[in-house]
Amino acid sequence: MRIRVLGSAAGGGCPQWNCACDGCGAARDAGVDRTQDGVAVSGDGSAWYLLNASPDIRAQVLAAEELRPGPGRRDTPIRGVLLTTAEIDHTAGLLALREAETLTLYATGTVLGALPIVPILSRYTDLRLRVLPAGEPVPLEGGLTVRAAVVGAKVPRYAEGAEGEDWVCALRLRDERTGGVFVYATCLPQWTEEFDEFLRGADVALLDGTFWTEDEPALRAGLTRTPRQMGHLPITDVLPQLQRHAGTRVLFGHLNNTNPLAVGEAPVEVARDGQLLRC
Ligand code: MLT
Ligand code: MN
Ligand code: ZN
């Protein structure tokens, strides 16, 4: 399986366009530009799937050589988009994919039902909605199988009051040819036994790196809400759990601009935009 990191930052990116905080300032000074969270995956190198579609998707697709269109005028290697949340930073890029001849979207029923973009997009492209049932393996083109697990119930702000439990998912992708397993969980509010089992045996995992420490939102942004209340377990609370997963290469993505690891050296592996991983 090939895994291309398209973007490694949380909503807003790093630096964020209107933010003069220390983290965004440091990113500007260092020339760091992390676009918003998403990856592209493929089993055979020809059929690709996007995991989330950030507002930066156009630039991300242009930067990934495997996603180059052709040979037909509107042929694209992108076979579909799998969404892990209905948040704006994971879904606004769908609008930029409206030129697709067909667009297949995979997400939980709750997420598909909540997206205001769905009725809009269906006027522009042949939109195909596929419910990802939690726990059940779903075959994809190119020899991949995906399984979703519900990991959180945080409702996006625009959908407050909407029904449903399965708002936030992790994805486990398996290459049936090589046996390689990739787990993608960049929004992880808590570490449950179910998630521990879901991660078990993965070769590569991209986990929630929004915040480095529990007190970071308070210290670096003056916020009263904790990382958990925002739906993101801080990295320092994840690290002890990883002792049970020594065989898994873990990278952290979806970095917030308060996260000191977004710029410069880091004591853990932090995903970089454009990075190619294999398993
Ligand atoms: C999140 O990851 O918690 C959301 O994307 C926050 C947001 O950008 O509104
Ligand atoms: Mn986000
Ligand atoms: Zn900032």
TrEMBL record:
Domain of life according to the entry = Bacteria
Which keywords does UniProt give here?
PQQ biosynthesis, Transport
Claim: tRNA-binding is one of the keywords in the record: no
Query: Which InterPro entries does the UniProt entry name for this protein?
Result: Metallo-B-lactamas, PQQ_synth_PqqB, RibonucZ/Hydroxyglut_hydro
Domain Metallo-beta-lactamase span(s) in chain numbering: 48-254
Which pathway does this chain act in?
Cofactor biosynthesis; pyrroloquinoline quinone biosynthesis
Q: What's one Pfam family the UniProt record gives for this protein?
A: Lactamase_B_2
> What Gene3D superfamilies does its record include?
Ribonuclease Z/Hydroxyacylglutathione hydrolase-like
Q: Which family does it belong to?
A: Belongs to the PqqB family.
What task does this protein carry out? Answer: May be involved in the transport of PQQ or its precursor to the periplasm.
- What name does UniProt use for this protein? Coenzyme PQQ synthesis protein B
- Origin species, per record, is Dactylosporangium darangshiense
